[in-house]
Amino acid sequence: MTKDGEGVARDGDAGVPGSLARVLGDVAAERAAQDAKWGMQAVPDGTGAEDAVAEADRARRETDEAGRRGELTWRHILREEVLEAFAESDPELLRTELIQVAAVAVKWAQALDRRPAVAERSNPGEAAAKAVGEATGESRPDRFRAIVDVHVMLVRDGTVLLGKRANTGYGDGQWHLPSGHLEPGESVVGAAVREAREEVGVTIRPDDLEFAHVMHRAPDRVGLFFVARKWAGEPYNAEPHKCAELAWRPLGELPDDTIGYPAAAIARVLAGEPFALYGWSADNGA
Q1: By CB distance 3.0 to 4.6 Å, which of 37, 42, 202, 211 could disulfide with 231?
Q2: Mean pLDDT of all residues belonging to the chain
């Protein structure tokens, strides 16, 4: 770690230990949620238009002028980076510009987190702990944040409904349960109801969801598994852009190409085991 001329640490944490990791963790969680909802989208870049270069040049001039006037804002900086990316048509150079856009956005989020009012609103407990730490001279690193996902086992006549993933960038060609990540402000029950509706087109009453298993997957995932034996509607492939097919498979005879962790969780559910670790080393209790 090095420091600049003003004594500020240049380790990406903006003088606040754990700041960069916290924001990058939030970015990773948002990216995972996007992947769960839309998959890895294959769409054209749409950059390099003739007027985009002029817009980027104008944004650079506006940023420079704002800096000279002492009126520079994050909006100026990020807008310049975004428009420079829009002006680039070469894929390699475009990638460089996009990384710069992402870096500026992350730094802006860190700047927001450093503002006391924002930090206290986003996590009043941590803000209070920080205040105590400053008063006593003790410090505490940011709390670990896990990514929570929900999985729905639709069970009928000794079989469970599985979907073969496609075009998602994760587990494509393998079988998985209807599942997805928890969204902000959403309960795990609400998420399970939503995922079942979005992926296989059925409506499940919250009271008809039976909690069956929780799995802590290394390094940062917590999966909650629910069993449903009653629902409204006949399951169908509601997301053909992310699922190649649906199939009912015997609970005790899952396909060999089922993704590892849901297969392990289903086995634990059949064994009546409510909790399991997955992917951890022996030193961590797995």
Answers
A1: 202
A2: 85
